[in-house]
């Protein structure tokens, strides 16, 4: 697919899945890979961006998110899950430099995206960075325009989310 995800591992996984069924169709954008290891699943995704005019918002929240979250919950039934990647959502106001200027105007900071992700977290998964750094404002993405990095005007779009049963194994998460 055109989006593409990859995982490099020194340990050979027991199995690998590279397809996610979204709205009854296989996702052909290359946005999903799940690796099964002996004691956990590692899932890497590049979640679709809703677009400049939010033209893919409905697809993202009503189709993609629902399919992905169902898959993650199903995997979690067999082994705990570590989910990482570009999730294309700034979940809380602290995760974006200008929450008021972007709320419901910019992909990644709409109520629909934030509520979708928040609902998933409430089902037994944990945002590891926010768990360990409750009040830290840190970003993983900076626009190339307007010197955003130098001005620390960014977004936290990249995450490590784990099954709550793995939380004791999470000890540090610097950005």
UniProtKB/TrEMBL annotation:
Domain of life: Eukaryota
Key word Repressor present: no
Pfam families reported for this sequence: Exo_endo_phos
Any one annotated GO CC term: nucleus
Record-marked site positions (Transition state stabilizer): 88
Site positions (Important for catalytic activity): 158
EC numbers for this chain: 3.1.11.2, 3.1.21.-
Amino-acid positions noted as binding Mg(2+) in the UniProt annotation, renumbered to this chain: 86, 88
Enzyme class: hydrolase
Protein keywords: DNA damage, DNA repair, Hydrolase, Magnesium, Manganese, Metal-binding
GO biological-process terms attached to the record: base-excision repair
UniProt cofactor note: Probably binds two magnesium or manganese ions per subunit.
Family indicated by similarity: Belongs to the DNA repair enzymes AP/ExoA family.
Protein name: DNA repair nuclease/redox regulator APEX1
Taxonomic lineage: Eukaryota, Sar, Stramenopiles, Oomycota, Saprolegniomycetes
């Amino acid at each position: 697919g055109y989006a593409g995800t990859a995982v490099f591992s020194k340990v050979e996984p027991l199995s690998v899945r590279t397809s996610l069924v979204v709205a009854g169709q296989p996702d052909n954008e290359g946005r999903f890979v799940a690796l099964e290891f002996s004691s956990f699943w590692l899932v890497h995704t590049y979640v679709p961006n809703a677009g400049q005019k939010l033209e893919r918002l409905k697809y993202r929240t009503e189709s993609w998110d629902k399919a992905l979250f169902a898959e993650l919950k199903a995997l979690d039934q067999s082994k705990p899950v570590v989910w990482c990647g570009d999730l294309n959502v700034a979940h809380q106001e602290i995760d974006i430099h200008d929450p008021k200027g972007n709320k419901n105007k910019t992909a990644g900071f709409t109520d629909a995206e934030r509520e979708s992700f928040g609902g998933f977290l409430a089902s037994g998964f944990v945002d590891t960075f926010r768990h360990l750094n409750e009040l830290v404002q840190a970003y993983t993405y900076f626009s190339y325009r307007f010197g955003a990095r130098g001005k620390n005007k960014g977004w936290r779009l990249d995450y490590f989310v784990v099954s709550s049963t793995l939380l004791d194994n999470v000890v540090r998460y610097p950005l």
